[in-house]
Amino acid sequence: xxxxxxxxxxxxxxxxxxxxxxxxxxxxxxxxxxxxxxxxxxxxxxxxxxxxxxxxxxxxxxxxxxxxxxxxxxxxxxxxxxxxxxxxxxxxxxxxxxxxxxxxxxxxxxxxxxxxxxxxxxxxxxxxxxxxxxxxxxxxxxxx
Length: 144
Hints:
Distance between the termini: 25 Å
Structural class: alpha+beta
Radius of gyration: 22 Å
Mean pLDDT: 85
Oligomer: single chain
C-alpha cells in the first residue's frame, strides 16, 4: 500500500483504512418508540387492526430471505436453544472445523428476551392502541 501511495500520492485526495470485519447491531430509533412506530404505521397506511398481519408477513419475509441466503451460500442455518450461547465462539468453531477463512460461516437463530410491540384494546377510550412491552423474539444473525 505504501508503494502505491508514494507512486500516486499527488493524485490521491484521501485514504481510508479500517478493520477486516465489522459487526453492526443497532436500532432504528424512529421505530423504537410507540410514537415513532405509530407515525410509521400511519405513513404506510397500516391500520392498528392490521398490525399483526403486517408484522407477521414482514417476519416471514425476513426469515425466508435468511433461509435463502444460507441455501445460496451452502451454509448452515442453526437454531441455538439458548440465547446465552456465544455465537462468535460457535462461528469460530465452525470456521476452523471447515477451513473457512472468509465469507459466510453460518446463520444462527435463537429466541431472546426483547421489547416488542403489540396492539390491544384500551378500556377507557374504547379504541385499539399500540403497546410496547417485554416478550421473547426470534433473532437471526449472519456470521461472516
